[in-house]
Structures are given as structure tokens and as C-alpha cells.
Amino acid sequence: MGTSTRFQDNSIHERPLPNKYLLSGPEGNVLVRCGQEDSLLTAPVGTVLFLNTVARVVSGMPIAEKLVAKMKRQVRGKVANLKDAMAGRAAAEELQKTVVTREDLAGFHPAHAAYVYAQNQVSVMSEQITALDDMAPFADIVSEAEDLYLPSAPPMSPLTMSYFTCWAFFDACVEPANETIGTTILEVGAAFGMPLDLLRLVRLMQHSRMGVFVHDGTEGSLVVLREPVSGAVCRAIVPAGYRGRKGELWFARVLPPPFPGGAEHVVFTTPYILLQPGLAEWTAYFGRVLPQAAALSLIDAYERHMKYGPTRHYWNDFVFEGYVNHRTEAIFLAGLPDVPNSRPHSPHNSARIR
User: What is the pTM (predicted TM-score) of this model?
Assistant: First the structure.
């Protein structure tokens, strides 16, 4: 059975979107969007990423390659296209009943709408392909994490759906090639003719990661965020609605402008506000966990650390154990990832309370 990954996070309106076509696989079906009438995603390929990336889609991904090979054999063609592989329209119509209309999407900021569109396509495809035997490692990882963290929203869990789905799709990797559900979807989509504009958006999301940012003020409706380690500065929309104040530390996933020439980045997750400690302590933290290296190597190490952590659940545990309070548009955390007694709900503090 596929992973339950079509989540909702009302704070940023992550809701499934309409899907049309069902792509047949060797042991199940994969749903992808391929509508020529769509006008949402029309920008050419080639947008520039906001940050350096550590999750590049490259050859040598054994799970994805095996899955694509099986699917091509299923459609009995060396080069299969999406239309050749379409099947199961009745099942697709059933799934379509669970999604919202394009009219609802029209109420979003265009940059946010593009990513919500892409995220929902990934979500539906993920639900289908993780039911296949070859995808069992991913299904097991996500299922285990769901049981551990009960992702939803505070007070039930500080792991919001916006945070958890991005982790599950784009960060939760299987070695040795650091494959994710996202990289697998990119391989399948490229092999079976997923539209280039949708592939591009999914690739941007796959390349993304969480980061620690300093709030440097606002410019109109945009929040200016600076990442101390990488030196990157962006002006971002915050769909969750939190404006914050200058000097705050944010833990968030910031996506680059979805279209070439665009200016607005997107804080895709509900922002986590790091109440304490302050910037000096976080700078010291990165000094402890990152290798002493040249600037470019240091940034690469930082990005890898933020995306994967030293262990699979490193950042999930930090959010879960660091929770302090919340409001509709933001969640407040305290502590450092490598100092257990600094996190309010760490096992160290829980044991002390008992």
C-alpha cells in the first residue's frame, strides 16, 4: 500500500490539485498531470537556483533505474511516452474527487501556486509509486516517521504537513545514491514524457532544503531573509501569513522564484521561529558540526547538513523536541540540535521531569 502522503496544511493552503492521467506501472498505477490546456506553468526551462544544491539528479540511481526499466517493459516499448502508458482512467476519476479546483488555486500568489501545483503532483505520484515493490524502502521510511511524529499541526505535533511532506518527498533518502521519492519521480517523469515545466518545478523542490535564516526586515509584502552560513539573501513571500520582526531567527524551507525573471522566493513551510539561543550560539553550533574548510566547501557541507543531517531524523527530532508554542501562522522552537538539555521535550529533559 502506498504511503499516505497527500497531506494538508491549512496555514499555507497545501491542498491536492486536479490530476488527469494514470500511468501504468509493473505492479500498480502512477498518476501524473499532462494536460495541454494548462496555462499555469508556461515559463521556459532554466531558472536560477537561490542556493547551491546537494541533491542533484544524476545517473546511477539504482532504484529509479530499475523502476523505469520495469515500466518500459510493461508498455512494451524501448522509448515509451506518457500517452502510450496511460491506463486506469476510472481510478483516476476516483482520485480526482479528492482534489480542489483550479479556481481555488487562482487565489494563491502566483509563485506559491506554482509550487503547490508541483507539490500536489508529486504527492499523487508518490502515493501511487510507493505501492510498488521496488519503492518499499521509501514507503518504510515515511511510514515509520508518520508513526513517530504524527505529522499534522500543533498542538498534536509540531511537524506540520508542509514540513513533513517536503522531508518525505525530497530529503528522506536511501543510500548509496541518496535517492528520494522526488529523484525517482524525476527519473520516471523524464522517461515517460512529463511536461518540462513541471519537471523543472519538481527539480527545484528536490534541490531544496531547510535553512537557518536571520530576519532582516520587510520590503512591502516581502520578508527579507539572510542565511548567515551561505551568505544568501532573499526577499520572500510567506504564505502562512507570518511577518515576524527584524532580528528573529527562522528555520524554514525557502524555495527560489519558480519562473525565470521572477523576484519572489517562497517560504514554503510554516516558519519555525527559533526563540533561543541566539545567532551567536547558532554560529558556534555550525562551527562545531561543519568541517573547517574553504568557503565553497563549507557551504556545500552546510547544505548537506541541513538537508540530510547526521542521521535521518536529526532535524525531525529537533523540531519535535524543541517545540515551545505556536500560533496559526508560526511555530516557536527553542534549543540546539546537539545540546539535548537545551530542547524542552528532549529525552534528557523528559527523564529529568519523571
Answer: 0.82
